[in-house]
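Final report, Chapter 2: Outcomes

The project's central promise was a pipeline that accepts a single protein chain and returns its three-dimensional structure in a standardized token representation, suitable for archiving and comparison. That pipeline is now operational. To close this chapter, we reproduce one record exactly as it appears in the project archive, with the input sequence first and the structure output second.
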Amino acid sequence: MEHVGEISALASAAFWVVTGLAFAVAGRKVGAWVVNAVRIWFALGCLLILHVVLNGSALPAYSADAWLWLSLSGVLGLAIGDQFLYQSLVDAGPRTATLVMATVPGITAAIAWPVLGQAIGAWGLVGMTVTLAGIIAVIAQQPKTSGRVYPMMRRGIMLAFIAAICQAVGLVTAKLGMGNPDSIESVDPWAATLIRVAVATPIVTVMLLFSKCMMRGFGRVMAENEAGTGLTFAQQGTGIWWTILLGAVCGPFLGVGTALVAIDHIDAGVAATLMATSPVMIIPFARWIEGEHFNPRALWGAGIAVIGVGLLTMM
């Protein structure tokens, strides 16, 4: 299939739009950190079922090197990187944190060049630059009103940069673990996703429990709501479970899976750039679901990003 890598990268961006919206809705009800841990367990279940159906076994049977690189990728990208990103959203706000995370494609390309030998050509650099310029124009727009103060801005920015580095290194190490797609020893992207999520899941859970124990006491870990409603899962009803399941299927399952399909077929830097278009895709949904208002610069930025994506798919 032509342009399977580019299509997969854009699909990954679209899936993360859905999971981001689901994450926001559920997080306001039962707490974002709790949702993050619960949804990765959901994703692990979906991936295990898929692997059993496709391969007849629960866990992939690959070399120790593949498991090592993919495990490292899961720890850095899905456990540590995601947790730092969440804390940066709290400390610096979503707008600043997302702006810092726009550096992921550049960091990924810089690492992939010496590690994977993936040098980006002139037109590729032009396409990445145009796409990122459009993304930055979208996420850097100032809201009409701002009543929230972020007293830990510097720490939030620092954590966002650490998250960006973790995600970039996670993509490159995932590619190292998957190997050459034309090789007989290559790892299937969906099996690679299972390995990454399987390793990240207990680490995310331990990190959640440790943070909750430190702040509130072990007995209230799963009952407290960081958003302030104070309702448990049981009190929220079945709707909260369906919302988290939607986020799990579209994020750690389909979002991560299509991301690995993308880096399996195209350069990691290009894939990361295409996957970074989520802030552009989310514009109509944020306006519809969250009621956010965007100024004309955001719409111009979206158009610029689309042009950049076109340049990248023409490489």
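Archive annotation: The radius of gyration is 19 Å.
This record, like all others produced under the grant, will remain available to the consortium after the project formally closes.
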